[in-house]
């Protein structure tokens, strides 16, 4: 973005990024080397979860936030998946419940014990099967407890009601792989990006596509709802292969409200939006910079603030929820940066410089807490409610009283929209197919060796028989 002078009043024009000291980082973490375009990291006020390298399946670490420093190589893992873990997300209402999805076509719900893991966890409290190919994205509903979305490489989005442990809706409007999912603030709308280069706004309970944009000049990769402003922001690539962002009106996707080229690098741009401060953060995969902007309601809509620079490239970024921030330090956002080359997780705090040590109410408005506004049945019946807001003035630390109860299931079929999703056995994952291929090759070599040994023995017997026949007979 070209620099231009801007004369305007803003509380956030001097926001700066501050990386944590080495003692406050998480060191020695074998971060996954999977090239899937996800963050491989999830964080809440209690735990940090990171997808890790693991032999013989998929695994991720769950580390209490206060346990900084070097992580032991034999640190306990969550390792129940048979394929690589592709995405993890914490439940926004129950802080020890985390969802994961994998190449083994499953979605699993895990309950982390208080204080973290003491040994490897292999048994999930709930296993969800409905996709026929690997599952790349999981997303919790922002206002309703026990509603989870998953998007697979079978081009389908399944909506799971975890109270019954089954998918209750299927969104089947995508002709290719789904790249990103984003809910609006009350969870009544879902925005998706797809490999067919289209942006869609979908009513999730019916699966009906409300708006669709065919982006000829802007190939979309990621999308995020901008709070309750009825606008969307996408990141992608322009026709000249430069990284680009675009702003859209959710009720009219015929043309973007604005497009802005960022730079000529090739890494994916991850967008993060803070609805409380109206700030947008752009972090590039493979580079170490985080740009941040302020979103306005009038043109030019986007105002550049500053850039956090770092020489260490980032593979992904986790984001701390608002109630986990340090309000005494005027911290308005916190990233957890994955540095694969160093095996390091580095917290980066975005801070508003203020001299006063009192609570700064103007930069901490009422924000969504950890209480759900709806039950699954209410949301599925068509009710929408805004999230329940809380104040951070006294340091919001109230733990939710909700307890996750896994349903008992004996049903062997999963029927959604009249289709039995488990009628056919899902195809094996790529890793399973490779292991099966190598086992078959070993078996073929073993049989060939046995055959060769038998062939040698047959020749020996034939030679002995020939020699026996050539012995002259005694008269």
Automatic annotation (TrEMBL):
Residues 444-471 form a coiled coil. InterPro entries: Coronin, DUF1899, WD40/YVTN_repeat-like_dom_sf, WD40_repeat_CS, WD40_repeat_dom_sf, WD40_rpt. Signal peptide: none annotated. Transmembrane segments: none annotated. GO terms for molecular function: actin filament binding. Residues 5-69 form the DUF1899 domain. It comes from the Eukaryota. WD repeats lie at residues 78-120, 128-170, 171-212. Keywords: Actin-binding, Coiled coil, Repeat, WD repeat. Belongs to the WD repeat coronin family. This is Coronin. It comes from Rhipidura dahli. The gene is Coro2b.
């Amino acid at each position: 973005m070209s620099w231009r002078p801007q004369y305007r009043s803003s509380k956030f024009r001097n926001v700066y990024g501050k990386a944590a000291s080495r003692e406050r980082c998480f060191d020695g973490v074998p971060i996954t080397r999977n090239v899937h375009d996800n963050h491989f990291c999830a964080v809440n006020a209690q735990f940090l979860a990171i997808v890790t390298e693991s032999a013989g399946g998929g695994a991720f670490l769950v580390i209490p936030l206060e346990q900084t420093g070097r992580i032991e190589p034999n640190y306990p893992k969550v390792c129940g998946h048979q394929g690589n873990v592709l995405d993890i997300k914490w439940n926004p209402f129950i802080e020890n419940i985390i969802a994961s999805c994998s190449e083994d076509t499953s979605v699993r719900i895990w309950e982390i014990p208080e204080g973290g893991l003491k040994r490897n966890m292999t048994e999930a409290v709930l296993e969800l099967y409905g996709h026929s190919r690997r599952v790349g994205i999981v997303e919790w509903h922002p206002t309703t407890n026990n509603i989870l979305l998953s998007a697979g490489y079978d081009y389908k989005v399944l909506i799971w009601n975890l109270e019954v442990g089954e998918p209750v809706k299927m969104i089947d409007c995508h002709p290719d792989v789904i790249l990103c999912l984003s809910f609006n603030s009350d969870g009544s709308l879902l925005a998706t990006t797809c490999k067919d280069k289209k942006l869609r706004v979908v009513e999730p309970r019916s699966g009906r596509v409300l708006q669709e944009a065919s982006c000829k000049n802007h190939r979309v990769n990621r999308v995020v709802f901008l709070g309750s402003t009825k606008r969307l922001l996408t990141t992608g690539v322009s026709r000249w292969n430069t990284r680009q962002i675009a702003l859209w009106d959710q009720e009219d996707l015929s043309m973007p409200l604005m497009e802005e080229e960022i730079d000529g690098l090739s890494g994916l741009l991850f967008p993060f939006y803070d609805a409380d401060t109206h700030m947008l953060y752009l972090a590039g995969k493979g580079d170490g910079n985080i740009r941040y902007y302020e979103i306005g309601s009038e043109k030019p809509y986007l105002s550049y603030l500053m850039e956090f620079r770092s020489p260490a490239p980032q593979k992904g970024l986790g984001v701390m929820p608002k109630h986990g921030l340090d309000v005494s330090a005027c911290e308005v956002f916190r990233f957890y940066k994955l540095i694969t080359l160093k095996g390091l997780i580095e917290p980066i705090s975005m801070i508003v410089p203020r001299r006063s040590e009192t609570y700064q109410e103007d930069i901490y408005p009422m924000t969504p807490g950890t209480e759900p506004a709806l039950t699954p049945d209410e949301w599925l019946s068509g009710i929408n409610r805004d999230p329940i807001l809380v104040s951070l003035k006294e340091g919001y630390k109230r733990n939710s009283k909700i307890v996750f109860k896994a349903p008992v299931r004996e049903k062997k079929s999963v029927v959604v929209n009249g289709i039995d999703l488990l009628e056919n056995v899902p195809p094996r994952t790529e890793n399973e197919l490779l292991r099966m291929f190598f086992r078959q090759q070993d078996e073929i070599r073993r049989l060939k060796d046995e055959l060769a040994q038998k062939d040698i023995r047959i020749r020996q017997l034939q030679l002995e028989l020939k020699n026996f026949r050539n012995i002259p007979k005694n008269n």
